[in-house]
Protein: Lipoprotein
Amino acid sequence: MKTRAFTRTITRAGVCAGLALLMTACIARGPDDYRAVTRSLVDTKKGDIEACFGGEKGTVVVNFTVEKKTGKIANTLVDEKKSDASAEVSSCVVSKIEGLAIDRGDMRDGAANFTWQVTQ
Structure:
């Protein structure tokens, strides 16, 4: 009897642990949550990005992907039609965010578009 109860307890614990692992490994954020998490990540470089402008005025619009498995920012491209800052400023902004990663990946890639504008 005790062996059977012990076996059931171990089995239940294993099932619970497996379900917990599965639930944390398969995150599917909604658009608003994805946006907020990505914004928080990019904001960690706010000072560095503002320093890229070095007193220049202008706008840099960047499109990128948040990779589903790693959570890394990748495929970062400046939208030249919407940006009017110098190429040096734009390149600096890209270098500050490329490779950053959110804490956990997601079940799908995230497409993002961020704008930085300095008017003073």
Notes: The CA atoms of residues 39 and 59 lie 17 Å apart. The chain has one domain: 28-118.
